[in-house]
């Protein structure tokens, strides 16, 4: 469970660029929450605040009740993050990449190896498990990065633009995986600028624009709020026509 | 998560980081090539070349070949030179040009009036042609000059004896040279080379690895996901440091072993430097270099972590390395005895101690301890600084 309350984060020499400007929302366990917004809406910054990489200027964010600033290591033990930059080590094999993160999470020995095997099976990356990451395709890289993020079986999973650069087959297997995790009662928060991605997966949608929450709710709630007939029209109305949602 | 054993100690995480970095760096061909090449090629191989050069020069002086012009005019001198194992050849007519061109080192020309002058009781004239600006020729020139002086002395003594005069009348001063250089303190160039390259290995042995693990990590954007795990920045810095220290120590040990082998099997007696770099000296070198093996990786990590890219890091490092390599060179040209406080200064202190080890001196415990203090403190400070760099938000956005 993620609770974000009035988070503000600004950049620049005089803090004049408000990347996130008073955002509040909740992401519950057993649900996939989608952060939808155009490029520059503040999605990545918000995910970085929740994953303890950035300290908010004001406001609070908690993961399962642990504050992301005061209690950052407790938060880090509970989250798995697929960041925008996959950041695999090209000279390590897929298995070694996953093992490294497992060791950093305090796993060791047979328990760790068993968990790695389990993930390799679940993500069907057995054929590349012992190859070095150097020549991996985008889809293979994404899968290994997800396995790495899940190695400690986190309750909360943050994914920044997970479908970027993937072909349709990879996107489908990713969706299946995320649905499985939801069925296990995990809390998933996932950002995208592609409307179809969000509507295909998410129970709750948080629409960000210009660093603020423009609207939240289920797909039908959003339709009702705007009085539009299609979701696409609803998004365009909510964000104003100037900010396109096109990929 | 049930059934999964968890150990949350920081030591385990540091160990995990160090292990991963060591595997990673040993698989990086470029880094390993640079590290091993500098360790093996730069030091021992260069020294082998220098030693061979010195040895060849020494051999040349010993097997002296002397082209002679007009040898018929002084048969006694020719006989003397032949007795001294000098190979005499007939000098070509254009010998002056050949000397200028560097084909001949030195040529002896006996004056055509030599016999006549000697018969009249005058000094006989011989001319020695050479080019003293040519380093290679110096050994031969000195050898021929010494032989001619010896002949002149022997001849003079014979004359004095014939007239019943004691030899001492003509040479009242008896000079007995006594060289106080210990076997190890001669051969200053080779000495400098060993100390310098031993130091050099400790300074740059971890460079490629340190850059790869900091600037490289940033360039590959792998730092961001890493910082969402429970690893603390100081644990990350310490683990990476340990890995680079391992590599640096490997480079130092390889370089020193190279020296040991070269000095053992190189043609040293011919050089005239009964040089000592045995296992004792090897051990003293290692003990002296320990603080640098620890300090330099920490500094290199700091420079690497500060830079936005690999290229920027390399530029900053070249400035640092230039400053570091200047210190021992300045010390070598220092004419006075080294001041005592020098042992406290990193690099300078180590260089001074290495030079002493090479001169065959034992290393005093107190001075060794002094040379550890500042590098030790700097290592800790640099690691804290690296950790602070890792925890800056700007490392994520590439600023």
Topology:
The complex is a heterodimer of chains A (247) and B (399).
Chain A: E1 2-11, E2 17-27, E3 31-36, H1 43-50, E4 58-63, E5 66-67, H2 72-78, E6 79-82, H3 94-104, H4 109-122, H5 138-150, E7 156-160, H6 168-183, E8 187-192, H7 195-201, E9 204-209, E10 212-217, H8 219-226, H9 231-239
Parallel strand pairs in A: 3-8, 3-9, 6-7, 7-8
Antiparallel strand pairs in A: 1-2, 1-4, 4-5, 9-10
Helix pairs in contact in A: 3-4, 3-5, 8-9
Chain B: H1 10-26, H2 29-62, E1 65-69, H3 75-83, E2 87-90, H4 95-101, E3 106-110, H5 114-119, E4 126-130, H6 138-162, H7 188-204, H8 207-219, H9 223-226, H10 233-265, H11 268-271, H12 279-306, H13 310-333, H14 348-358, H15 365-390, H16 394-397
Parallel strand pairs in B: 1-2, 1-3
Antiparallel strand pairs in B: 3-4
Give the structural class of chain A.
alpha/beta
Q: Compute the average pLDDT of chain B.
A: 82
Mean pLDDT of chain A: 91
Number of strands of chain A: 10
Biggest β-sheet: strands ordered side by side in the sheet of chain A: 6-7-8-3-9-10
The chain-level structural class of chain B is mainly alpha
**Helix and strand element order of chain B:** HHEHEHEHEHHHHHHHHHHH
- Biggest contact: A-B, 42 and 34 residues
**Rg of chain A, nearest Å:** 18 Å
Beta strand count of chain B: 4
* Biggest sheet statistics of chain B: 4 strands, mixed
Helix content of chain A: 25-40%
- First-last Cα distance of chain B: 38 Å
Indicate the percent of residues in helices of chain B: 55-70%
Per DSSP, the total helix count of chain A is 9
Number of H- or I-type helical stretches of chain B:
16
Strand content of chain B: under 5%
């Amino acid at each position: 469970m993620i609770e974000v309350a009035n988070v503000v984060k600004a950049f620049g020499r005089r803090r004049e660029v408000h990347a996130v400007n008073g955002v509040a929302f909740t992401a519950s366990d057993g649900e996939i929450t989608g952060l939808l917004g155009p490029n520059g809406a503040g999605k990545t910054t918000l995910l970085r605040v929740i994953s303890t990489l950035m300290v908010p200027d004001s406001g609070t964010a908690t993961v399962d009740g642990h504050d992301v600033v005061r209690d950052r290591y407790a938060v880090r033990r509970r989250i798995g993050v697929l960041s925008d930059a996959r950041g695999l080590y090209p000279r390590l094999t897929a298995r070694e990449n996953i093992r490294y993160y497992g060791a950093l999470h305090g796993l060791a020995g047979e328990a760790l190896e068993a968990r790695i095997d389990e993930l390799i099976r679940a993500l069907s990356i057995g054929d590349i498990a012992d190859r070095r990451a150097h020549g991996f395709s985008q889809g293979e890289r994404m899968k290994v990065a997800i396995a790495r993020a899940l190695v400690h079986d986190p309750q909360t999973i943050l994914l920044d633009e997970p479908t970027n650069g993937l072909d349709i087959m990879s996107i489908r297997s990713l969706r299946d995986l995320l649905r499985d995790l939801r069925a296990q009662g995990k809390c998933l928060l996932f950002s995208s600028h592609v409307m179809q991605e969000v509507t295909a997966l998410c129970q709750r949608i948080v629409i960000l624009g210009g660093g603020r929450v423009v609207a939240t709710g289920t797909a039908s709630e959003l339709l009702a709020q705007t009085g539009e007939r299609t979701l696409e029209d609803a998004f365009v109305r909510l964000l104003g026509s100037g900010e396109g949602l096109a990929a | 998560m049930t059934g999964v054993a968890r150990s949350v100690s920081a030591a385990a995480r540091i160990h995990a980081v160090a292990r991963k970095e060591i595997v990673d760096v040993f698989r990086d061909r470029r880094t390993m090539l640079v590290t091993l090449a500098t360790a093996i090629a730069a030091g021992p191989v260069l020294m082998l070349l220098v030693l061979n050069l010195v040895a060849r020069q020494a051999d040349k002086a010993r097997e002296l070949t002397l082209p002679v012009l007009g040898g018929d005019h002084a048969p006694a001198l020719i006989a003397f030179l032949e007795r001294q194992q000098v190979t005499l050849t007939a000098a070509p007519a254009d010998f002056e040009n050949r000397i200028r061109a560097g084909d001949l080192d030195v040529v002896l020309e006996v004056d055509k009036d030599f016999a006549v002058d000697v018969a009249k009781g005058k000094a006989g004239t011989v001319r020695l042609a050479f080019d003293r600006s040519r380093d290679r020729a110096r050994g031969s020139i000195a050898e021929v000059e010494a032989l001619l002086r010896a002949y002149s002395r022997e001849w003079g003594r014979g004359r004095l004896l014939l007239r019943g005069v004691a030899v001492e009348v003509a040479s009242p001063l008896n000079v007995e040279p006594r060289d106080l250089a210990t076997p190890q303190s001669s051969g200053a160039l080779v000495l400098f080379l060993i100390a310098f390259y031993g130091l050099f290995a400790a300074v740059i042995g971890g460079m490629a690895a340190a850059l790869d693990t900091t600037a490289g990590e940033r360039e590959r954007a792998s730092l961001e996901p890493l910082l969402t795990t429970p690893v603390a920045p100081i644990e990350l810095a310490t683990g990476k440091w340990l890995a680079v220290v391992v590599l640096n120590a490997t480079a130092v040990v390889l370089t020193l072993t190279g020296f040991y082998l070269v000095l053992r099997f190189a043609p040293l007696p011919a050089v005239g430097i009964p040089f000592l770099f045995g296992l004792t000296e090897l051990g003293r070198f290692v003990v002296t270099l320990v603080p640098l093996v620890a300090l330099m990786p920490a500094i290199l990590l700091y420079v690497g972590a500060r830079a936005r890219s690999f290229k920027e890091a390399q530029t900053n490092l070249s400035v640092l390395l230039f400053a570091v390599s200047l210190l021992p060179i300045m010390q070598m040209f220092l004419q006075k005895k080294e001041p005592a406080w020098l042992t406290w200064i990193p690099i300078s202190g180590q260089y001074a101690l290495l030079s002493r080890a090479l001169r065959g001196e034992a290393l005093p415990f107190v001075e060794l301890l002094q040379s550890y203090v500042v590098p030790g403190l700097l290592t800790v400070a640099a690691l804290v600084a690296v950790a602070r760099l890792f925890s800056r938000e700007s490392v994520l956005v590439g600023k």
